[in-house]
Amino acid sequence: MTLSERILEAYDDLTRKERHLADLLLKDLDMLVLKSATDISAQAHVSKATTARFFRRLGYPSFKTAQRAVRSGEKVDSGRELSSGAVRRKGGRGELAEHLANDVQNLVRSIESLKSDELNQAIQCLAGADKIWVIGFGDSYPLAHFARALLIRIKTDIRMIPIGGFSVPEEFASIKPTDAVIALGVGRKTRSLRLIMRSAMRAGAQVVYITDQASRGGPDVAVVTLRCRMRGISFYESVVAPVSLITYLCSALALKIGQAAFDRLQFIQEIHDDWGDLVSGDL
Can you give the three-state secondary structure of 42-89, one letter per residue? Predict the structure, then answer.
């Protein structure tokens, strides 16, 4: 189990101050290798005693033990493993209630960890962009489709990568410094995502990165990184938090854009009415 997996597994049982430390390490695990316990404690605004207790909760006798484990190349994450009871679960109302409780916790913990200034910065980046690019590969591809479906209703020029049958570099060549990017990196990440994000930053575009709590992010790939808790209790990770965050960002963006967004929504509805393609009531 990696350090980030240990942190996420124990997160619900951590105290408020221990969560400050957990959030700091999840953003940049390299600091555990590069900094002392005193430096990390100061940066997280917690005492050294809190830091020592935090690492004991994770199963390490001391900070130094955790530091040595990471320096020696503690197990690298290659994708989420099944929980110990996943194969034994058979389904039913009890399991459904547990599933619901887990998703509620994912939402609550995600909202608690998101900072209002970072959310506002993300919304401002998107509102001021000439074009918005939505990027998602693999597990993130359905979320990218969902984000684009919401954005195209309120803003005119929404691009998506990848598009089936089209080369990514040819599409990406249209990016401008006046553009913004929503990059989705949940579940298993691809090298292509990080390469595109870095290229977008070099092109001067504003990149908003939506990812899980274990992802490092970094200023070389995004101006804002928004992390969601995606803990699953069976075979799959939960995507409730990223879906909710995407919905919130798009709703807040519509309000930020103002009348132009509402006019576009109204025009789209008038087209549907004119074409008669929507069925009222039940099918």
Answer: HHHCCCHHHHHHHHHHCCCCCHHHHHHHHHCCCCCCCCCCCCCCCCCC
Spatial distance between the Cα atoms of 70 and 36, rounded to a whole number of angstroms? 13
Residues 126-164: pLDDT tens digits? 999 999 999 999 999 999 999 999 999 999 999 999 988
- CA proximity to 60, closest of 81, 74, 76: 74
Three-state DSSP state, 139: helix
- Write the CA distances from 184 to 109, 192, 234, integer angstroms: 19, 12, 23
| Domains located in the chain, CATH noted | 3-71 (1.10.10.10), 107-274 (3.40.50.10490)
Q: What is the pTM of this model?
A: 0.74
CA angle 48, 54, 57 (to 5 degrees): 145
Strand partners, 207: 181
Q: Please give the torsion angle defined by the CA atoms of residues 262, 268, 269 and 273, in that order, rounded to the nearest 10 degrees.
A: 160
Backbone angles phi, psi at 239, to 5 degrees: -110, 15
Distance CA 69, CA 83 (A): 23
Amino acid residing at 153: R
φ/ψ of residue 30, rounded to 5 = -65, -25
Cis peptide preceding 242, ω within 30 of 0:
no
Angstrom distance (rounded) from CA 76 to CA 116: 32
Over the stretch 14-58, which tens digit does the pLDDT of each residue have?
888 888 898 888 877 788 888 999 999 999 999 999 999 999 988
**pLDDT score of 80 more than 80:** no
